[in-house]
Amino acid sequence: MARSGKRRYTAYWLLAPGAIWLVLFFVVPFYSLVATSLYDPNGSVLSGYKVTYHFSNYWHALKSYHPELLRSLWYAGLATLVCLVVGYVLAYAIAFKAGKWRNLLLVLVIAPFFTSFLLRTLSWKLILSDHGFVVSTLQNVHILSHDGRLLNTWFAVVAGIVYNFLPFMVLPLYASLEKVDGRLIEAAGDLYANPFRAFFKVTWPLSLPGVVAGTLLTFIPAAGDYINAQLLGGPGQTMVGNKIENLFTTSQDYPDAGALSMILMILIIGMVMVYIRTSGTEDLV
Amino acid sequence: MSPAARFFRWVKDHLVLVLGLLVLVYMFVPIAVVVLMSFNDPGKSKNVYAFRSFTWNNWLHPCHSAGMCHAVGVSVGIGVLATAAATAIGTMAAFGLVRHEFAGRSIANTVIFLPMASPEIVMGSSLLALFIAAHQGGHLGVWTIFIAHVMFCLSFVVVTVKARLSGLDDNLEQAAMDLYANERETFWRITFPLVLPGILGAALLSFSLSFDDFIITNLNAGQTTTFPMFVYGAAQRGVPMQVNVVGTVMFLIAITVVLGNTIYNRIQTKALATR
What we know:
The structure holds two protein chains of two kinds.
Chain A: H1 10-37, H2 56-97, H3 102-110, H4 117-127, H5 133-140, H6 154-178, H7 182-190, H8 195-206, H9 208-224, H10 227-232, H11 240-249, H12 254-280
Chain B: H1 3-37, H2 57-60, H3 68-99, H4 105-117, H5 120-133, H6 142-166, H7 170-178, H8 183-212, H9 215-220, H10 227-235, H11 242-274
Helix pairs in contact in B: 1-11, 3-6, 3-8, 3-10, 4-6, 6-8, 7-8
């Protein structure tokens, strides 16, 4: 319903406040981050910094923090994969099996969002604690050794990330599964496809837009997250977010912090582009 | 049908639902723990990660935990202000984007989408880099948090309101115009009431995003402590049990609002159907 004539400029007036806010506090800050990453590392908070195009900051950050960078991508990737499997089951159940309970179940998927992210993560600390029910059960059935633990291991961190970002996976998956016409699946069955074949030939390809959206919405925040690593992991599970936060707030080493933040951003953008291109060959979206 | 095929059919019919419900249960286990721990009396024990004995004390004296109620107050204050600003600005932008054709619309859509797809740590550190470059590094506090929260809530508001707006039936507005309502009347009596649920949903989402944010807030807060920052700081020593009271209350309020809305809609639909 586009209106023309005297109303031509209305759109700009309506958009102006939001646009100004986003340019000032989202686009310009990104420029500041680039500048910060190129500061002369010899500056300090007191004497001030100069932009000297010190690309060596990047090299230095990469050299010092590559274990954390790789760990972040690895944890985020693994968590995204687990989220995809677990989230797919839930989204599928809601879309095809829930009947009149659909809306209620969707509300329940979103509901955990409304309890503090930090409190829910701390709950996992309790659930996975050394003398807790989960650990002692696993010890009794000899999956864990008698002094084995879950807290402060990669398992706890990845489990925490999976838990926290699961709704980001479920909602886009549901949105595209909901559009799948159930009659197509029936048709596949009528043509003698067994349920698994029908799933992989019909349902799965039709849900791919949701899969792409869900994996991106899970992977990107997961790679930058450090709360799970901080609360559920030990010193061996530090992620790149912990380092960036530390460099900015505690050690106030802005050039390194800026460079590390940029590297994370570039890595994520690169991976996302490769991913979209690869999945895009199958005529997506 | 072979027994194997029958088995697969059974799996297809029931197992998916059972597994799906198990996933939902898994999503609620930590919340059940939060509710349970809000009744925990840790006594003299230093271990706050196990249930020791039952008490009403945390609920009766939530502010006994030093600094917590102040932090909750700060979070609520920032949440209300940021929600009001983001909802107003975002709703205007959504109307502009859906109702008007103009040059640069796709760029606007991209810029609005980007904050939702950026890692928080990068957005937070960029904003901090800006504040430091603008020599505001020593003046971080409520206002820098407010700026940051409006920034990341905006995109969610625009997307939510846009979804509601583009699902709107044009005919209703046409009908109002045909019945000699002018544009202003049409807007306030037809369009706005129809979009209102979307705006309220966006506001609820904004508030919970703002209230819950840690990563961006922590970088730009200076000496100010919000509720998530209080919890994070306390987690290093062992959290006071009262934080679970706040968590439970938040959850109850949100559930009441959302379920209340669902039930209200159902009743209204039924009333219309039987009229």
